[in-house]
Amino acid sequence: MDVLTKASVTEEAGFAEIVGLIAAARQRAFQAVNTTLIDLYWQVGEYSHIRMEAKRDALESLVTKPTKRKLLAGVSKGTPNVPQAASIA
Length: 89
Hints:
Layout: H1 3-62, H2 65-76
């Protein structure tokens, strides 16, 4: 093997090593982004869950116990105890 061929082989090996380093760095970047997105989705879900619980609690506090019993009485019989709207003749 002459000097030029040896240099060419060495350059190719060096280039392949650089390509490998770039590929490994890209993989780590993808993993970091995916981890960050998963964390974001968990935070959004937790935020939504807390907000929904707060709204449910606020609505429950507005409904008095007698009203709640009256509304639920019809549901247990299969028909809600809700006044019917007047029909238009």
